[in-house]
Queue: 3 jobs
Job 1
Amino acid sequence: MNIKNINTLGTLKESAYKSKSIKDELRDNLRSKIHNNEDTFTGIHGYENTVIPELERAILSRHNINLLGLRGQAKTRLARQMINLLDEWIPIVEGSEINDDPFHPISRYATSLINEKGDDTPISWLHREDRFAEKLATPDVTVADIIGDVDPIKAANLKLSYADDRVIHFGMIPRANRCIFVINELPDLQARIQVALFNILQEGDIQIRGFKLRLPLDMQFVFTANPEDYTNRGSIVTPLKDRIGSQILTHYPETIAIAKTITQQEAQLDGRQKNLVHVPELAKDLLEQISFEARESEFIDAKSGVSARMSITAFENLLSAAEYRALKSGDEQTLIRVSDFMGVVPAITGKVELVYEGEQEGAASVAHTLISDAIKTLFPEYFPKIERLEKESEKSPYQELIDWFFEQSGFELLDDIPEAEYIAKLDAIQPLNALMNTYQGDIHKKDSYFMKEFLLWGLVEYKKLSKYRLLEGFRFNDLYGSYISGL
């Protein structure tokens, strides 16, 4: 259908266009995508077998939808991607404030225009990208904002009585007729404003300053809500909840692999960073493990959640830390180091809500604890478990390395040393090289240095070595030799 040639009601009638409600539009296009095995929601990972099927069933049921979940769980992104299930173009009565369907006009303006001009009524076309409206629920939102109000300026200009419904200025919801309308953080909306949504959802009625207008608005409502808000800031009033067809629970990534995919997709990186910094897979795993540790931490409020944005911003900080070091040292290429993870602390402290015990520890201290816990959790996946080797009859594979640190009276690894010096210092620890050959012999050389440093940090977490923060780096010591040397 060539919409360029359809610019009046008469030509629209002669075309093959058939009017349908937005819910039927979404339903029909979703049926086609499912039938053709096409992806309906792209770039959203980890929901393939949970959230997305539930959302698709809700659309097939023509329901208004509430996406309920903690922060950083892609609720708004899901809602925004629903526009891809709309028809590319729909006709509207030209000049209509509320996107009147030419075949089913509901506003006084559109009905009067069609009665006056008939088949010569001008038609314009609305693209699906323009059929999405979004409002963040805040305490200052009023009924006038979302429903409408009497406009005294319009009444004065048109010389109309306040009893004339043409003095009404429509709010956001009527203006989003035939669109997807999203209200984010619904519990934050005052109860009296939520009440104003009752009839719109159920009957299509709106009431403005004494005017009771029968406007059968054609809307697809999507609400988002955070369970934390039910106790902290408000709640969804029961009658409104009753009118929402489907409530769908979102969740955080269930595996590190999914979390890594999300982070790599969403991180905003400079191309020069990618060329300058090499990031081993272990470093990516460690970064994601920090978020998993945070969601289980006794210092962090689990009800508040730990957003996926924490891993994204932490990854950006991690690369920036390595880039900063390389620029200072003059290296043309650099490898991510475990010490670079100290650069992600600001991304962690700004993204977590601490409980009382966490506040007592301090945000930075909690962040360092999460990094340590992540190293300890991943360590047994790459090297032998230390608890299993505590038997007297077994010699620990780490003993030669521990002895090396005792003999050398410590080992310093400064933050800003050039790449060549960093590699040389790690290569000089022969027992460390032997452990790598035994347990990670097939690892790529570029990744091996991060793994070596990771091994040292892991032994610290399992109390086989000690580690001290210096002004410009870290010093590793034999656990008991440090006491003898007075460090």
Job 2
Amino acid sequence: MTSSPGHQLTQISLQRSHPPSRDRSESPIAIATQAINMVFDPQIEQVPVLRGINLTVPQGTIQMVLGPSGVGKTTLLLILAGLLTPTAGQVILLGQEITQMSRSQLTQFRRQHLGFLSEEGNLLRALTAVENIEVILNLKGIQGQAAQEQAHQLLAAVGLAKLADRLSCELSGGQQQRVAIARALAGHPDLIIADEPTSALDAENGQIVLELLRKLAKQDNSTIVIATHDSRIQPFADQIAYLNDGVLLPTSQ
């Protein structure tokens, strides 16, 4: 009997060495930010959140952004995903400067190229697990049986094949997180932006998710940016940057 993708992935332990290094010097640049500043302007006083952020991520790599709560990691991810406009600076994704795009252009770019996972997951509670994924596939132009098949495959990959028809509001927090991860992977996006993807997962399911992301990076040449507090998943990174007090410290590779 052939094992399911999720079952196969669970055979790999989280306690692993850093993945073999590879020469990324000639890889195309998937993400480049130039002097990103972000200042929130409440009525009382301005609050600087990001200061002079320069980040370069080669295509096909996993970039992790580490740092304590409140240092601007989520703000940075929202800017990279085109969901928040920086006060100053440029964001170039796949060779296109998204900070110069109109709202409609950004929407189309995200649909074509981007998978986004917020820490909350933000599933549609009235839809089933598989329907939550199908909605995203439909927006990407994948319809009918093709969308159904891919949605079921993604749920199987995160170990939720048997819960495909369960309403998302009936799932546990960890199960909802895995559905949200599967949804972010829908349509095989070129870029995946993930905020704390393993925060609600135990070691086994965190392992499944990270192996799935690494497979995408290696085989599909997807580029993945993860903000995390989870020290267990750091060995899966190709690059690690540290964000502290709105400043991005030198990246380790």
Job 3
Amino acid sequence: MIKEFNYKTHGTCSTNIKIVYDSETKIIKDVEFTRGCPGNTLGVATLCKNHQLEEIRDLLKGIKCGAKSTSCPNELSKAIDEILKNN
């Protein structure tokens, strides 16, 4: 079943991440960032498509943006954690 999940980010230029995924296969179908650095967020979103939630979470977890304690990719990993906790 295809599901959509929205996550309000914290500490980044992006304000929201929308993830469309298959709840049975746990494959990401689409990722869309609201705001943020367009090239970077589009690049991350494109690379996530057709990969498993766990794989992307593990790759992006802990990435920082400059002196910030988080980043758009790290916030995506947190969003995926929320999805996995609730499925």
